[in-house]
Write a structure and sequence with these properties.
It is built from four helices and no strands. It is an all-alpha fold. It has a domain of 54 residues: Orthogonal Bundle (Arc Repressor Mutant, subunit A). It is globular.
Length: 95
């Protein structure tokens, strides 16, 4: 299997030992779930911001079913996906 983003994979691999140490001290037995939540929450929030809260577009971009996206947002304590409308990460200004 070919890596889609080798730079991102390297950054994540370098962060794993510290992440496991921190999660083990706080949530023994929940390292896997804790790590997934740490990545998933900002990922979903960012993609919903990019799509201005459009759940269908966000779900398609993520490769998820829209209902799965809604469920995960609820489980992770994210604001309603509709509340993400207008929350777009600013892009750098062109020179």
């Amino acid at each position: 299997m070919q890596e889609a983003a080798p730079g991102a994979s390297r950054l994540i691999a370098e962060a794993i030992p510290r992440l496991v140490d921190e999660l083990t001290s706080v949530q023994p037995g929940r390292v896997h779930r804790g790590a997934l939540e740490l990545v998933e929450r900002p990922l979903l929030a960012y993609v919903l911001g990019l799509t201005r809260g459009n759940q269908l577009r966000a779900a398609r971009l993520l490769g998820l079913n829209r209902n799965t996206l809604r469920k995960r947002c609820r489980e992770l304590g994210l604001a309603s996906p509709r509340a993400a409308r207008g929350c777009v990460t600013p892009r750098p200004a062109s020179p």
